[in-house]
Design goal:
Layout (H helix, E strand, L loop, with lengths): L14 H19 L5 H31 L3 H4 L13 H15 L18 H27 L8 H21 L7 H6 L5 H7 L6 H9 L2 H17 L4 H11 L12
Helix pairs in contact: 1-2, 2-4, 2-5, 2-6, 2-11, 5-6, 6-10, 6-11
InterPro entries: Metallopeptidase_M50B, Rip2-like
GO molecular function: peptidase activity
Cofactor: Zn(2+)
Length: about 260
């Protein structure tokens, strides 16, 4: 177990993250102004980079909360720099979630930062560390949907509106999936400290397969329908209509051609 304290350089924001953030800003501007020759490409790059930014912030929230909870090792591991290349499983944390967005428009939870739980004292702290990530997705969803529930869409270009709606859908799906009390997901991490030692030992072997189990369930049409009805209900309460998210996903997958209804 490392005893390295967090140094100032361990908290310096990574150029990798700043680069991703810059791509999000530039492509967001291109989507807003219609500068891009192919609007769908701008939407794809904007949503993808913004989605990766949210994944970085998700993992940062876990690490930062763990730091304040007593795990000073997270700094030396690079988790406070927002650099996705420092995560325990870069493939699971970034590549796989992006692929799932492309395949089905689902904000799949990513891999993890490794928290030395032995350094954390108190069940509430353990639960808060697990909850911090998906709560970041909730906050991101609130920000993305703000123009909709505030009625501030006048003058917002359709392409940017659709992109925001689709990005909000990703955040809502990520938050819901992450909060499921399934071993391996953050929702289980929230309740795990409150379970008996015997129950935790019985459940532990299934943790590596929890995400695969959820993914398999989402391929069942009836389960998928219930899940997206729930997502649509949340988005509707926040002022986003299904046509907004549909057109956002349609523009995002620009290589398949754009629906005439969503033409911008």
């Amino acid at each position: 177990m490392t005893t390295t304290a967090t140094r100032p350089g361990d908290r310096r924001v990574s150029p990798v993250f700043l680069g991703i953030l810059a791509v999000s800003g530039v492509t967001g501007w291109a989507t807003w102004t219609g500068f891009a020759a192919v609007p769908g490409l701008a939407v794809f790059l904007f949503v993808t980079s913004a989605w990766i930014v949210s994944l970085c912030l998700h993992e940062y929230a876990h690490a930062r909360t763990a730091l304040h909870g007593g795990d000073i090792s997270v700094g030396a591991k690079g988790y406070l720099t927002l650099n996705p290349m420092k995560y325990t499983h870069a493939l699971l944390s970034i590549v796989l979630p992006v692929l799932f967005v492309i395949m089905g428009g689902i904000g799949l939870p990513g891999g993890a930062v490794f928290i030395e739980r032995g350094r954390i004292r108190g069940r509430w702290r353990h639960s808060l560390i697990s909850a911090a990530g998906p709560l970041t997705n909730v906050l991101f969803a609130v920000i993305c949907t703000a123009p909709f529930w505030l009625g501030a869409l006048d003058g917002v270009p359709p392409a940017f509106r659709f992109a925001l709606a689709f990005l909000a859908l990703l955040q809502v799906t990520a938050a819901i999936l992450n909060f499921l009390p399934v071993p391996g997901l953050d929702g289980y991490g929230v309740i795990e400290p409150w379970l008996s030692h015997g129950v935790r030992r019985q459940v532990e072997p299934f943790a590596p397969f929890g995400l695969l189990f959820v993914f398999a369930l989402l391929w069942v049409p009836s389960v998928n329908g219930v899940f997206f009805d729930m997502v649509d209900g949340v988005l509707s309460a926040l002022g986003i209509e299904e046509i907004d998210t549909y057109c956002g996903f349609d523009l995002f997958r620009f290589w398949q051609g754009t629906d005439e209804y969503c033409g911008v």
